[in-house]
Each structure stands twice: as C-alpha cells, then as structure tokens.
Amino acid sequence: MALKARALYNFQSENKEEISIQENEELVIFSENSLDGWLQGQNSRGETGLFPASYVEILRSRSGSNYTDYSGSPAGSPGHDSFYTTPPNPGISYQGSFEDDDDDDWDDWDDACTVVEEPRSAPGTNGHPSPSLQYPAAYGHHQHAGYHPKPALERQDSMSSSKRGSVVGRNLNRFSCFVRSGVEAFILGDVPLMSKIAEAYCIEMGSKGPQWRANPHPFICSVEDPTKQTKFKGIKSYISYKLTPSNINSPVYRRYKHFDWLYNRLLHKFTVISVPHLPEKQATGRFEEDFIEKRKRRLILWMDHMTSHPVLSQYEGFQHFLCCRDEKQWKLGKRRAEKDEMVGASFLLTIQIPTEHQDLQDVEDRVDAFKAFSKKMDDSVLQLTNVASELVRKHVGGFRKEFQKLGNAFQAISHSFHMDPPYSSDALNNAISHTGKTYETVGEMFAEQPKNDLFLMLDTLSLYQGLLSNFPDIIHLQKGAFAKVKESQRMSDEGRMDQEEADGIRKRCRVVGFALQAEMNHFHERRVADFKRMMQSYLKQQIVFYQRVSQQLEKTLRMYDNL
Length: 563
Prior knowledge:
Blueprint: E1 3-7, E2 26-29, E3 38-42, E4 48-52, E5 56-58, H1 151-164, H2 177-180, H3 183-187, E6 201-206, E7 209-212, E8 221-231, E9 236-245, E10 252-255, H4 256-269, H5 289-308, H6 316-323, H7 327-338, E11 351-352, H8 360-417, H9 426-448, H10 454-493, H11 499-557
Helix pairs in contact: 5-10, 6-7, 8-9, 8-10, 8-11, 9-11, 10-11
C-alpha cells in the first residue's frame, strides 16, 4: 500500500536505480519495509527509485505518531557497522546467461559448473557483481557527502570513527557503482594483495597520453558459417558459428551461449574497461535467415573489437574460448576462468602504470571533457540510429510502394494507347510499358538496398551505443577515487591521517586514473577507424546503388531514340 512521506534531508542520486529528493519534499512510499536501509518510492517530479530510509519520515493520518524512525537501518546510519549483502535490484535487467532462453541450456556443456551458479547480486560497472561478497570487511562504514545527520547519528558516527582511527569515510550509497565494483575498497587499500599475480597489463605514455601496451601477439578472428544443428534426435536446435583465429588458423565451433558465458566472465573481471555488448537475444524467430545474418554481422564487429583491445585480447578466458578444441580441456579451462581471483577490484592489482607524474586536477579535467564528449556522441549516435532505422522502413515499404505506383501508372498509359489501333504506335506503347516495369524494378532495388549499406551502419551504431553506455559507470569510478584523494589529503592536513596513508590512497587513485585514460585513448582510436570505415562503406554502396539505378533508366531511355 502506498504511503505519503516527507523528506528530512537532501539526497542526490548517483545512478539510475536511485532518485534525488529535497528537504521537505512530499514523497510516495511504495512499502514502509526498508530493503537494507533503502526505501522505494516516487518523488514530487514523478521519478521512481530508491533513497535512504533514514532521510524520510512517513506521514500517518490515523496514528498517534506520524514519524517512523529508520535510523537503525544499516544503510541509513553512517558509521553503523554491519555485514553488507547487496539486495536485489529491480532496475537492472540481466544480459547473458541469466535470461531464460531455449538456446541457453547447459545440459551438453559442463552442467556441474556454470555461470548461473554465481550469486545474483546487482551488477556494477559493466554489469559486475557486487564485490561485497568478496570483501565484506570493506563495507563496515558508509558515509555520504550530502548526509545531514541528526545529533544522535552524528555522535554515533564520530564514536565509530574513533575506534578505527584515521579512516576515510565510506559511501553511504551502497548502490553506487564505486562501491559495488570494489574500486572504493581498492582505493582505501582494503583489497587483499595476492602472494603471486600471474598476469600483468601495462600502461605506457603515448603521444596522446596513457595507453594500453599493445598485445605482443596481435591476431584477428573470423566469424563464419552460421549453421543450424540439432540434438536429442532433433528435439533441440541451435546455431553454431565457425571461429578461426589467425594466430592458430584452426577453426572452433561455438554457440551463442558460449559467447554469452565469455561475455559474463569479461564483465565480472574487467572493472574499468568498456566491454563491447553482445548482439541482443531474441525469443522468437531465432532460426530465421534475416536474424541469423544480422547476428553474424554483429558478432563479427564484436569479435573485431575484442581482438583489437590490448587487454581483452590477451585474457586467458578469451584465448581459451577461441582455441580450445578438446572437450576435457575445455571444461577445465572453463572452471579455471570461473575461479579466477583477479576479477573486479583485484583486476586493478594487475595494472602496471608509468612513473610519469600527472596532476590529478589535469586528469579530472580530461575526464570531464571525455564525459561531455561521450554524452554528446551518445545522443548523436541515437539520433543517427533513429534516422537510419526510419530510412530502412521507407526503403522497404514507402519507397517501393511509390515506385510501384509510378510503374503501374505508366503501364496504364501504355494500355490506354492500345485502345484505338489506327492511331496506336507499338514502339511507343512498348517503351512506355517498359518504363513502368523499370520503375517497378527500381522499387525492388530500393527495398533490397538497406542490406548493402544501412544495415552495416546500424550494426556499427549499435555496437557504439553499447560501448558508450558503459562509460558513465566507469567515469563514476574515477570521480569516486578523486573524492577519496581529496578527503584523505584534507584529513592529513588536519592531522587526522598519516601522510603515508594519504599517499597510498593517491597512488592507488593514479592506477584508476591511468586505466581510465588508457581506455579513453583506445576508444578514440577505434572510433576513428570504425566510423571512417562505416562512412566509406556507406558512400561506396550508395554510389554503386545509384549507378545501377542510372543504368536501368539509361537503358529504358534508349528505347525512345528511334521512335
């Protein structure tokens, strides 16, 4: 039952699951049962989402008291130590093996150990699961920058802080990707160091700033021959794809669910990398030719981005996916990837950064510029997607129909000229009739043309919509790291933190900053190459198309020359 409430303090949302509320704002609460200290409701602007339970009071019309106190809620009380388990997040839709799909059963592929067995915590950056299950100790204190506590809560917070000594406050907002991804724990030094780190990813200084060190063994991989196969005596059907990496030149065959498994491993591992999204699933029509061809085109683009990324291309799980042909070894490698410890925040321990000094303010300014750029690019990509999609609709429907109408009209003229034989000219009648057929042919050419140009454009735009959608969360990680550096330096200046500890936070922030800048540089490098190729392909296909149309019209025109 919905209840009315009033906001006691201001709260600024940090992601799409939350909503901002203002002091004294009237709210609607969907349920007064808090979810780990959070309530779900609607603000006065009609926005629906989550906000801290301790920031509101419920207004009761038939009760002696109109106030419900949530200050004891774990998330609602900064400084209240509690073990944190991420609650279910209704705002997140899972891509990948969490979907129910006939193509995603695991009965023929190592049932004993699958990605489905992982805890279904709310994903963070790029869809990463919450790190709270990995680092429970890192989530004891939560403090929000916009928090305005009542005196009792303030006293509780200061008492708790005195127990721990010089500790930078942690975020109150447990739904923040900065917390969920584990980057906060990494910045504060709470991610345990491994005794032996087998993998390392290096960042170098290039002409345009930090960049990932290139893969020393670059390769490409083709995606070909989507083939329908069956099992259980034809009861179950699926599509397999032939993958041929250039470094071994030996094909393997993978189903979409295998791509899906790999994609989830990538999301789980690479915290600060924009992992390209897989082509979308489809509940019906999975074996229709157009859908199979569309998925193949988009898997080719996805694979091209994977093999070109200096970090993703070297990932052991990706190499296993591309190269393993033995069933036993395949299952062993799959389990090894699922037990990988260097995931999420621990992945940051594998990054080696340059020794060059970077002013944090300069880095922040560069990140802000990229944030503005990516937002504008996202808007323009969506705009072009809508325009191109509408143009496809017109090609297939409107344009074809209009040319068919024109062709039929010319045919009618030709037929009418046959009505009075003494004055009829067979040559002219035939020419006009042929003109009508020519325009019908042109209409069919328009209907078929999107397969040659607009579909390829839409494939590229779809890929970049996915890549761009990853960056807000990744940038938020950097912003959270900056905030911790500033807070730690202020505490050091006030004598509440050792300078050595503050320097450690700054050093770990540099890792996140270098990684984000390297990812930004890689994105720009790929963007230039991809959009150059997309525009060249589109214009070339347009030229070829209109040349074919012109040839049809010129051939028809010559029929009138000798009348």
